[in-house]
Write a sequence for this structure.
C-alpha cells in the first residue's frame, strides 16, 4: 500500500504561530457568541426535545398477518416479533450498504494499488459475501411474512450511522489506509450485530432462522480478521 501519512505544510496547530495563539485566546475571552447560552443550555434544550419527540419510525405489521388478531400474530411469531423484524431490517440495510461501501473501497484500491492487486481481490471477496448476507436476511424476513422493502426504525438509524464511513470512502483524497480504517469500523459492528441477531432469533423462538445465520457469522469473523490484519500489517511495515 502507498505511504499512509506524508509530512507537509500543515498550519492547523497552535505551535505554528505562538503569537497568533495568544491573540486568539484573548479574542475568545473578549468576543462572546451572539447566541446567548452555553453548553448547559444546549443540554437542557436537548432533554426537552427528547422528551417531546415522536419515535423515529415504526415496524409495519407483516402483510401476511393483516387481518389476524394481534394475539394470533404474537403466537405465530413470538412475544414481540417487531423487535426481531426491526433488527432484521437493520441487518438488511447494513449489508446492502456494506456492498456499496466495499464498491467504493474497491474503486479506491484499484486506483491506488492496481486492479490486479491482492487488496482488490480480498475486497471483492468480502463484498460478494456482504451481498449474500443481504439476501439471506431478506429471505428470513419473508419467512416471517414481513416485507423486506419496508424501512424499519433501526434500518433508518443504520443508514445514518454509515454516512460518515461512506463519506470517507468516496472522498477521492483519502488514501487506502484511511479507507481501510473506515471499513474496520463497519466490520467491528457487523460482527457484533450478527452475534446479537442469532441470539435474538433463538430467544424469539426462531431456531431455523438462527441456524441459517451461522455461516454468515463465520464469514463475518473472517472479514474482521482480514480487515484488521490488512490495516495493521500496512501501518507496521511503514512505521518500522
Ligand atoms: Fe456484513
Ligand atoms: Fe462484513
Amino acid at each position: 500500500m502507498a505511504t499512509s501519512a506524508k509530512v507537509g505544510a500543515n498550519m492547523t496547530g497552535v505551535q505554528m504561530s505562538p503569537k497568533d495563539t495568544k491573540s486568539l485566546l484573548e479574542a475568545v475571552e473578549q468576543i462572546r457568541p451572539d447566541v446567548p447560552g452555553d453548553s448547559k443550555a444546549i443540554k437542557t434544550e436537548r432533554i426537552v426535545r427528547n422528551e417531546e419527540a415522536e419515535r423515529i419510525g415504526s415496524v409495519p405489521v407483516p402483510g401476511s398477518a393483516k387481518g389476524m388478531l394481534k394475539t394470533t400474530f404474537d403466537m405465530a411469531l413470538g412475544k414481540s416479533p417487531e423487535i426481531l423484524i426491526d433488527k432484521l431490517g437493520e441487518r438488511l440495510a447494513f449489508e446492502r450498504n456494506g456492498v456499496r461501501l466495499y464498491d467504493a473501497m474497491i474503486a479506491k484500491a484499484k486506483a491506488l494499488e492496481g486492479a490486479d492487486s491482492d487488496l482488490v481481490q480480498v475486497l471483492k471477496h468480502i463484498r460478494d459475501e456482504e451481498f449474500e448476507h443481504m439476501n439471506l436476511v431478506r429471505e428470513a424476513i419473508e419467512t416471517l411474512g414481513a416485507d423486506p422493502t419496508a424501512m424499519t426504525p433501526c434500518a433508518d438509524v443504520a443508514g445514518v450511522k454509515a454516512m460518515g464511513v461512506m463519506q470517507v470512502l468516496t472522498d477521492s483524497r483519502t488514501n487506502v489506509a484511511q479507507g481501510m480504517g473506515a471499513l474496520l469500523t463497519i466490520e467491528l459492528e457487523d460482527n457484533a450485530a450478527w452475534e446479537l441477531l442469532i441470539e435474538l432469533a433463538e430467544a424469539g423462538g426462531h431456531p431455523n432462522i438462527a441456524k441459517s445465520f451461522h455461516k454468515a457469522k463465520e464469514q463475518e469473523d473472517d472479514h474482521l480478521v482480514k480487515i484488521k490484519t490488512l490495516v495493521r500489517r500496512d501501518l507496521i511495515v511503514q512505521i518500522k
About this structure: The pocket of fe (ii) ion (ligand 1) is lined by residues 95, 98, 130, 133, 190, 220 (CB under 6 Å). The chain has ten helices and no strands. The chain has a mean pLDDT of 91.
